[in-house]
Amino acid sequence: MMKNSVSCRDVVVVRGEQEVLHGIGFDLRTGTVTGLLGPSGCGKTTLIRAIVGLQAQVTGDVSVLGLPAGAPKLRGRVGYVTQEPSVYGDLTVTENLRFFAAVLGVPVSDVAQVIETVDLVSHADVRVDRLSGGQRSRVSLAVALLGSPELLVLDEPTVGLDPVLRRDLWELFHRLADNGAALLVSSHVMDEASRCDRLLLMREGELLADETPDALLTAAGTSDIEQAFLTLIEQKEAAR
Ligand SMILES: Nc1ncnc2c1ncn2[C@@H]1O[C@H](COP(=O)(O)OP(=O)(O)OP(=O)(O)O)[C@@H](O)[C@H]1O
């Protein structure tokens, strides 16, 4: 039986004066790649921050690998890549990874492995500020892969990448899931939806759908995810 890596129930988040998540519930399964999709500002990053335990003012239940989100024991078991670059520009790829391996208490022998996984062997000794945007985001991903985390949470990892690189990264995500990890990958690009095993579609702080891409398309009677998303919104508004 598939296990749940993340379980969210009735998750409400207030940021500033505003409630931005209005009672979200879903499970994230081990060994799958789940896409978190929705328009800019709908609350994807906020939900991700709640899962990795960085968000204040969360009510409801967020359980990660059987522990409360943010529990100290989850350190090293959860990898998180933010939208902002999280590596040092004045260090090489290898130096960055050695630094983060030491911080995380991960064996230094893992460094070469993750560099290979993200396909940066040829740039291992190049300073990060001399890399392209896509290469740099793969360094951040390599940091998140240190220690072979059981849950990987990636906030818009493919923004600004060319189609070939995007395809390669999605192949990597599925390899990681095949090896037993759960991945949650946010995107506001609907055409990435078909690459996911499951989809969470968000709008204005609510979950509109928690389905496989096929089930979603069948329910909406279309072959286009963007159209399915619009149909769902129309159905929801008609039901109000
Ligand atoms: N620091 C903050 N203080 C108050 N409100 C915030 C803060 N950061 C974000 N918000 C609000 O929370 C809501 C959700 O933002 P969030 O960043 O989670 O959306 P998102 O779906 O990740 O957007 P994007 O795709 O543009 O990154 C938005 O209405 C935003 O204005």
TrEMBL record:
**PROSITE patterns attached here?**
ABC_TRANSPORTER_1, ABC_TRANSPORTER_2
Has UniProt tagged this entry with the keyword Ribonucleoprotein?
no
InterPro entries, per the entry? AAA+_ATPase, ABC_transporter-like_ATP-bd, ABC_transporter-like_CS, P-loop_NTPase
Task: Decide whether keyword Ribosomal protein is in the record.
Answer: no
Mention one GO molecular function: ATP binding
Question: What domain of life?
Answer: Bacteria
The ABC transporter domain sits at 6-229
Q: Which UniProt keywords apply?
A: ATP-binding, Nucleotide-binding
Name of the protein this chain belongs to: ABC-2 type transport system ATP-binding protein
Species source reads Kribbella aluminosa
